[in-house]
Structures
1.
Amino acid sequence: MNIVVCVKQVPDSWAEKKLNPSDSTLDRDSVDAVMNELDEYAVEEALVLQEAHGGEVTILTMGPEKAGETIRKALSMGADKGVHVVDAGLHGSDAVATSAVLAKALGTLEWDLVIFGIESTDARMSVVPAMVAERLGSPQLSFATKVDVADSTVTIQRQTEYGFDTVEAKTPAVVSVVEKINEPRYPSFKGIMAAKKKPVTTLTLADLGLGADEVGLAGSWSAVDEFAARPPRQAGSVVKDEGDGGVKIAEYLAGQKFI
Amino acid sequence: MAEILVLVEHADGTVKKVTTELLTLARRLGEPAAVFIGSGADAALEKLAEFGATKVYVADGAQYTDYVVAPKAEVLAKVVADAAPAAVLVASTAEGKETGARLAVKIGSGIITDAVDVSPDLVATQSVFGGATVVKSRVSRGVPVITVRPNSVAPEAAPAAAAKVDVAVELSPAATAAKVTGRTVAERSGRPELTEAAIVVSGGRGVGGPDGFGVVEELADVLGAAVGASRAATDAGWYPHQFQVGQTGKTVSPQLYVANGISGAIQHRAGMQTSKTIVVVNKDPEAPIFEIADFGVVGDLHQVVPQLTEEVRKRKG
Ligand SMILES: Cc1cc2nc3c(=O)[nH]c(=O)nc-3n(C[C@H](O)[C@H](O)[C@H](O)COP(=O)(O)OP(=O)(O)OC[C@H]3O[C@@H](n4cnc5c(N)ncnc54)[C@H](O)[C@@H]3O)c2cc1C
Ligand SMILES: Nc1ncnc2c1ncn2[C@@H]1O[C@H](COP(=O)(O)O)[C@@H](O)[C@H]1O
């Protein structure tokens, strides 16, 4: 069974993030870049499925040159090869444009499952997997807390607002996994060394047959008009419990008319 | 005036509060028309009328709900084609965002998620980077699809006709490719829904175990609040996952958030930082959660919280 995992490089979630004043895109230069934490679970799930069912695991990312580091990290965890869509024309792509690029790239690969993380920690939209499923006409098995494959049937437990659903589909299918599904492995020293020799193919927009007007800022169907920093929260008051902490909070809540 | 479509969130016809908020918002943008998918529409009509839906498009049938989101997007696409609305509003829940995402691709439109407000010229306000930055965005192509966070708008009644319009869609094979074969509904607690509640009382690892949530629940109940939990607490199995607040849990924006035994990791703050008032109980004065507290007590929650519960009970008489 062949699996493609879509991973994104994002600014470290612990870093303070800013938007570029010139074009309202995320200022990626000012902060450390890491693999989207939530995509580590997707890589792990692919490796676990590979251990059980064989086949190859390919890492797909769209992003600047530097995003190649994120592919290497996934390869050092154990994935077999990488595909990197990199093109100056991609800068500023929104989710709709990103999904168009990923769907095109997936069209050039052989796979039974594509696995996504649940959300990129910078965009925080949680929409790209559904958009890619829509574009490919493939079944959408999203928000999985458990994935089972038997022959060509995939069954997942889908996390819902009210509990969970059991969902079933035939491969090829699009899966996204939540962070409860597994514990991502750390790359071993051997893995890191091996990753250096694993193949990574790069693809440009021309390779994918996409025009510059279909992606990037020009091809994005949503735009930021303006943005502003919100004044930081006013420092509140903190008291030490002297046996009356609960009463103190109640007084505060009464003062704020909550009780 | 062009229609503004609102996708109804409901459980067997019981309309969720977020839908009344979206209808209230839609009235400022155009003529609100609800889209109801699933069974129980007749039960829902009254509520939808009360909050100003002039029309209610109804697609009733198991085929629309027995598959993962795609059929809902196809129903919406059909209504968009027929009614030529000015915008589509969907609740910013996990499933709402997926439905909106598929719709946007289907109809060739842009999408904005997690809006906290939408102006009459369809500029959406978002609060990003944990509330540190306010962004105004616009969909620049097609019929704007905008997902709006629960608790962003105060619902106001404004009765309208809610004329029922039946809709039927021939679903594509792709829409019925991911079949729901089982549904597990977690027990309902009788408390307000987490994303809708005006007050949320949360517990984290500091609560100490599943039994420790008792003090959290008791405080929630005297305040009429929903209960939330940190990931440390849900991962440990102390509280069910659907109550997790944070980046990979729910985003809440209540009037009052009470954090008990929660350190305030960035992923937790991402889900609650826009709460209007934040109260903290934590025994570690260095816990980062105090940085965003309006009022905090450094102390053992097992002492402070029961005392608070008792005091609230007394004051409420
Ligand atoms: C990809 C990813 C996604 C994540 N998503 C989420 C998310 O959605 N939501 C979320 O919450 N976290 C999330 N996390 C986890 C997050 O980083 C923290 O690990 C988590 O929030 C910690 O939970 P906590 O504050 O309950 O526990 P801890 O950090 O262990 O804090 C416990 C606190 O309780 C206090 N305490 C202990 N005993 C008492 C007592 N008796 N009385 C008073 N105070 C006491 C301690 O001083 C401490 O501050 C995510 C992490 C990752 C990597
Ligand atoms: N540029 C990208 N390259 C590869 N995968 C991506 C990219 N952007 C988003 N994804 C995938 O889509 C998921 C959801 O992202 P989002 O909809 O942006 O929150 C992520 O967890 C990734 O798996």
2.
Amino acid sequence: MHFVTKVLVVFCAILSLVLAALTMAYATNADRIRGSFEAEREEKLSAQATARSQIEGYATEKAGIEDRQRAAESQVRDLTKQFDAMQAEKTELRSQVEQAKADAISIRNQLAQFGATADSQQALIKNYRDEVTKLRDDLVNSSKREIELVDRINDLSSQREVLEQNARALKEQLEEIKLQTAQAGSVGGLAAVSATEARELSGPLVRARVLEVASNPTGDLIVISEGANRGLKQNTIMNIVRGNDFVARIVLITVEPDKSVGRVNLYGRSGAQVMKDDTVLSRLDVR
Amino acid sequence: MSQFGMQMPGGHMQRGPTMNIYTGLLALAVVGLIAACAYVGVQAAKVSPAGSPWELQTYNEGSKSYEIKFSPKK
């Protein structure tokens, strides 16, 4: 056998072994891969079946979810409307809050003003109180002084009355002395008659008021508000006027210190009548 | 004695072995085996887990199945 043939035989043997080994490895891997492939395919089919069942479940669940979604959407719309309404209400409430804050600020300012006003009024009241206290003290002092002055006036009035009484007595004495002097001048009983005649009062004007009117069978008698303190005497003629009109003439028949009684002479005027509060004058030339 | 290279009288002249038709067939077989080995090796490397044609797919006891791995494509 040729050497080449032998070599070829050896190569053939080795290559055969190598090919057998490679073939076995290849076949083994191929078988395992096929088995895995079959298992994967079965698993795939089962997964597809499971997926289909799940898809069906998901479809029903999807329909339920869609229903719930529609309900939720309607609820969302309702909530959106409520939200808008609440937003509007919130805006209104916010404006009300701002208004309330502004009112609170204004009220606070007014309170501050009232406080300042109260303080100023308190100060004014204090000043008024002090002033009233001072005025009351002054009034008390004035009252005391008035009382003192009234007392003084009363004293002086009593002194004046005494002096007037003295003066009137002196005047009467003087008149009596004059009458006696006239009688001594041989005029005799004629002068006595003139002493009892009615006459007007000389000197300053005396103004009085009719206090009372009394009817009497011998004629009307009236009471006037002045008497001997003003120098009036018996048989003094006084004139009664009402406004600018002459009413009557009276002759005093009784004279007291502060009032007098006179007999009325109307001079035959039937319509004339003396009334209370008519004015009584000692003469008519001075009005 | 011929096996010792001695030529005996009346014997034929000893010749060396020559290639014959079987040598050629063997050569063809060798070429075919080489081609087959190359092809099967390439295909076995494709289905092997790490690219070597001799390696086998391993069995996972946890999943009770083979862990099918392939070598990344070049």
